[in-house]
Amino acid sequence: MAQEQPVVAILGEPGTFGELAQALGRAGAQVLVTKTSNELLDADGMIIPGHTSSIETYRTVQSFDAERVVGRRVAGGRPVLFAGAAFGMLFETMDDTTSAGAVEVKGMGEWPGHACKLAAAGAPLGVQQLVPAQESSLLHNLPGALRYKAEDGVLRWEFEQNIDYMRAPAVSWTQTTPPYIAAVENGPLTAVQFCPIASGEPGEEFMRRWVASLPVTGRMSVVVENNVEEN
């Protein structure tokens, strides 16, 4: 395959996330679905797709020992994308429903704040307009609204935006009442509350932009070629 195509590793069991893999292929990426740490580390981009809820997604990430991989990639400036229900797990705490009722549990803590149940806050899901951050490099002038399916979301951004020695994250919001965070672009780490593959052409355009932003190292080309030949 042409080395000009970046390699994107989706965190998951091989053979899963076929629709996401196809969308990434249309966006110009070579795609590998894997839970192997070295492949996740060496890929040009890594995606953590959402499951039913933020807490379920976090448990899946932990079961694959992928939290450590994410930390190493972000520390090394290697792009990582969290999508859909994976968004909420990046914050300090998130809601979980147990037999004893609702409780707060720890998230990854990349950013301060809490991921709550959006329905309980009266925040609407479905297709919603986006208000992109001025500093956003991925979300301006998308051709339409995006679809939000994840039950968990964040209503307040609590990160200190005026730290002299670092560039503040670009935080985009939904155009809803109440608004909730639609996306955060924070250096190599990008997280979106919306579901790209359920968002039609706007979602496809977002994926094209993210894939186009990836550096091409060529580290994974042989692995992906071998994977395609085996299938």
Automatic annotation (TrEMBL):
Signal peptide: none annotated. Keywords: Glutamine amidotransferase, Glycosyltransferase, Transferase. GO terms for biological process: L-histidine biosynthetic process. One of its GO terms (molecular function) is imidazoleglycerol-phosphate synthase activity. The keyword Lyase does not apply. PANTHER family: IMIDAZOLE GLYCEROL PHOSPHATE SYNTHASE SUBUNIT HISH. IGPS catalyzes the conversion of PRFAR and glutamine to IGP, AICAR and glutamate. The HisH subunit catalyzes the hydrolysis of glutamine to glutamate and ammonia as part of the synthesis of IGP and AICAR. The resulting ammonia molecule is channeled to the active site of HisF. This is Imidazole glycerol phosphate synthase subunit HisH.
